[in-house]
Design goal:
about 150 residues, alpha+beta, Immunoglobulin-like, 2 domains, 4-stranded antiparallel β-sheet, 3-stranded antiparallel β-sheet, about 30% strand
């Protein structure tokens, strides 16, 4: 039986991505520099979004874990939908390592001209914000009565 040991890639003093991640998580003596940069990357991550198109319009689904409807504001200006979220953390927990910390986000979406801006709806459930953007009803040809 052969034992396999994972070792850092010592070329030019660099570690592999796996080794860096492993050391960041499990090493008690890991430097705060690497952890801070990881925290900055997580902190500045926007809410992820999926956009779907159907015959009836568009749907935007965004990940907003831990946000309530009171924490989210949606505005519309000149065909641009802006979604902002902000929440205050009330717990005074002393973290050993913290990677989940999205306390605010902002995303903007340009809406198509076919969007019915008066009937946009939104709901948040189980950490997913769902925004429904219906299409404008098709204009029917105007019939003129001949007298």
């Amino acid at each position: 039986m052969t034992n396999t040991v994972l070792r850092p890639n010592n070329r030019k003093g660099h570690y592999s991505t796996f080794d860096q991640l492993f050391n960041d998580i499990f090493s008690p003596a890991s430097s705060g520099v690497r952890q801070a940069s990881l925290q900055d990357r997580v902190k500045n991550t926007p809410a992820l979004a999926n956009v779907f198109k159907t015959d009836k319009g568009h749907t935007i689904e965004m990940t907003v874990p831990g946000f309530t409807k009171e924490d989210i504001q949606i505005s519309l200006n000149e065909g641009r939908l802006v979604v902002k979220g902000a929440r205050n953390e009330t717990k005074e927990t002393k973290y050993v390592k913290r990677e989940f910390m999205m306390n605010e986000f902002e995303r903007a979406f340009h809406l198509p001209q076919s969007a019915d801006l008066e009937n946009i709806d939104a709901a948040v459930e189980n950490g997913i914000l769902k925004i429904g953007i219906p299409n404008m009803p098709e204009k029917q040809p105007l019939k003129i009565l001949v007298k």
